[in-house]
Amino acid sequence: MKHFSFTLPGRAAYVAATALLLNACAPAQDTPTPTAALNLSRYLAVGDTYTAGVSAGGLTRASQQYSFPNLLAQQFQGISAGAAFTQPLLEAGSGTGYLNFVDFTASGLARTTRVAGQAFRGNLIITPGTCGTPDTTRLLTRAATASALPQNLGIPGITLAQLETVGLGNEVNAKPGTPFNPYFERLLPAADSRTYLQAVTDAAATATFFTYFQGLDDLMPYVRSGGQCGANPAALPSITVMRNNARKVLDRLTAKGQPGVIIRLPALTSLPFLRAGQGLSLQARLQASFGDTARIYIEDPIGLRGAQPITNGDYVLATAIARIGRPTPVVVNGATLMLPYGRDSRNPVRDADVLDNSEELSRIAGVMSSYNNELDRLASTIYKLPILTPSASTSTLDSEVLLFNQVAGTISVAGVQYSSEVVRGNFFSLDYYTLTPRGNGLLANTIIAALNRAYRTKIPAIDVNKLPATAQ
Amino acid sequence: MWATGRGLGCYRLAVYICFPIFRKTARMRQPLLFLIPVFCGLTASASGYDSGPQGARVLGLGGASTAYINSIASLSTNPGLLGQWADSLTRISIGGMGQIRRASFVGQDTYQRTDQDLVVQPGGYLYATHALNKRVALGLAITTPYGYHTKWPSTWEGRSVIQESQLNTYFVQPTVGIRLNDNFSAGVGFVYAFGKYSQRSALGQYDDQAAQTQLSASGSGFGVNAGLYGRSGDNLSFGISYRSSVQLKMNNGTLTTTGVPARDAGLAPAASAFTTRITMPSTLSVGIADRITKKLLLTFDFSLSGWSSVDSLKLNVAATGNTPARTQSSVRRYEDALSFRVGTEYQVNPKLTVLGGFHYDETPVRDEYINPEFLDANRLGVSAGLSYQLSSRLALEAAYAFDYSQLRTARVAPTNAKVSNVAGTYRMAVNTASVGIAVAF
Known about the structure:
The complex is a heterodimer of chains A (472) and B (441). Chain A is 31% helix and 15% strand. Chain A has helices at 8-23, 49-52, 61-65, 68-79, 182-185, 196-204, 216-224, 239-253, 272-275, 279-290, 357-382, 399-408, 437-455, and strands spanning 43-47, 98-104, 110-115, 120-126, 136-140, 152-154, 209-213, 260-264, 297-299, 307-309, 315-316, 327-332, 335-340, 354-355, 397-398, 411-413, 416-418. Chain A has a five-stranded parallel sheet, with helices on both faces. Chain A starts with 7 loop residues before the first helix and ends in a 17-residue tail after the last helix. By secondary structure, chain B is mostly beta strands. Chain B has a 14-stranded antiparallel barrel with strand order 1-3-4-6-7-8-9-12-13-16-17-18-19-21. Chain B has helices spanning 6-27, 35-41, 56-60; strands at residues 91-107, 113-115, 121-131, 136-143, 147-151, 164-179, 184-202, 212-232, 236-243, 246-258, 271-280, 283-291, 296-305, 312-317, 326-331, 337-347, 352-361, 379-389, 394-405, 408-410, 424-440. Chains A and B meet through helix 1, strand 2, strand 16 and helix 13 of A and strand 1, strand 18, strand 19 and strand 21 of B. Chain A: Residues 1-28 form the signal peptide.
């Protein structure tokens, strides 16, 4: 038998084995080079609760870091070297206090506890008589950025109506009966009486790009009070003021022709604050949970009849859902009876706990659509921004069409489902209104996708499934 | 380019294949006629989780072995060849195989590139033939014809779609071959198949990185394999074979989840039982071998794999505690796929034979159903091998094949929430190597 040496076949096998090892590397693919035709070096975010990064009913350092403007800015920094983004960060800790998840009740409602905040200074100030907003307020620790305005100018609770309120952020106004916003106060140096519009003007002077997502906080007090702001139709936010003041802010932001993203407000019924209590689905859930066929009754908004069955256009507020079906004392024909709240025609859901279709919801939705249409008009005809929402042909970013409405019907992102359900939906936080870090990531990705479409930039999106499911 | 006009191309090929066969069979008596309806019923055919030619020598030949009688490894491709080995020799061929199937992924929106982890899918083969008399021979083939091992980094973008998935199959095929006359032989084999399937993916809805769902199952199934071999003159031969599809019935599956928070314990029980069915496609092959000179042989094969029998992966999960029974389904909707193979063999000297091959494999995976669990694409491959006669009875065989795929783009509609997938582009390369010995005594 011939001795097997390194002859031609041997060498061929050796070459083949070497080739095998070399080719075992995965085949290469070109990755797109992140580029931006836009100058994203100094981004300014203007807005309210969403922009500020409130999550689970509170603002903390962690929730600020997962605000959509900050997530967006991090992606910008990857392609625009040296681009910084400053936020008025709170000290690490519980911030202004927030909600923690405890468990689900038998009917599937999330129970929460409130963790006390620690970022306060001074005493509690009682401010009664405000409509749908907290009736207490407290000064917050001043931001480290107070000497120069931060790039995230999102102020929780600020309304467009307060745009030119002098002293809104001055400590001397922290008293009952005067408009005051502690979140704005902590951004400014002490005893600064600048209006929010002035702050925006100052910050916009150096900005190269902006996002504008404001107006929800104008509408939410009406929604949170079940349309009961002093039983006065004038309590509806003024359409004219909202439209005019939005223009004032946007004029400043685009003063030097800066490009930006104007975000159209999402439908109120896409927010779980209303959606979780949508009439017939809530009724069906309660029927399944109680094992009966009782209907839900709401007070007749006009007051002609005592109670009427709930329809699918009426929304029980998220803050009231836990009370539906609990026995409460009601006086019927002189006798006090314990009747299940809302699940008996003699004990209907009070008007303050429900946003009914015929009166309240249509009114507030009318305000919103008028405001949104003005944003569309400004974006396309005044500021000449490119089309950001192709399906709706608007130059605004239609957050309802591009995100909130899709989430309401459940979406799947790289194998993870997101819905408008709190806790399990991973999009909205425990306060039924603000977003989780992942929700903010999806909002930031929606903006990135729109910029990439409209400006032919290549800004990488965020792997949202890697973000935490809760901010705290 | 790849996608468009593909359906038409397959149709044309099918016609092209059916037609000459019909003429041939009409000329040479009828044993083949029963196959024609089966053959022409298929629109196109091979790739998918086919792990390649089962034998070092046929791997070197690019798999074009339906009419190739120089290795008994052709037995798994065409049992009709068995009659050709009805001589006084007992033959055994045994060897090992290793396959590295590796893909890279670039996220559509994140632009992040992820490479699959390097894993070797092991395989092997054992063939034996022995003649009972001059007309009848018995054969046995033990092969690992289907399987894959996909392993992504556990924190990659699509971790909630898939992290790891593995399929292994073992086919045992006792075969009877009959030499009909000097020029024709036929054979039929009975296939017993055993397979194991396992999968794991992250539960990305939870913050816990370790939250995972894992499943594993095994089962068996049966099939048949039949074929015919014919020769016209000394130089030209042809073969045709059909292997039925094999359905592995897996009734012992376990589905486990870890890292699920207490609030969702009712939605995802720690362990549940499930059953599933996994189908290996039918394969129809036709091949021609042409001896150009005394030393040079050329072979051609077409094969059609009936992948359309793979519609979806359905897990029938049994009820556990308060969690009701449910069906988890992921849609595959494979289509029949075709492969084209050319092989050549050249005898350098009495001891050394070198082999070369080229093949094109069409993928059964449609654009709409590209999924990282099992990635596949149309691919081109080249192969090389050798057979070295260590003694008059013992030959050493070795071969290597390299396949490179087209770029595939997976698009995902997030609003279709039932579909768990990740959007991006993939490219794949397959390296297969095999070493074995062939003995005749």
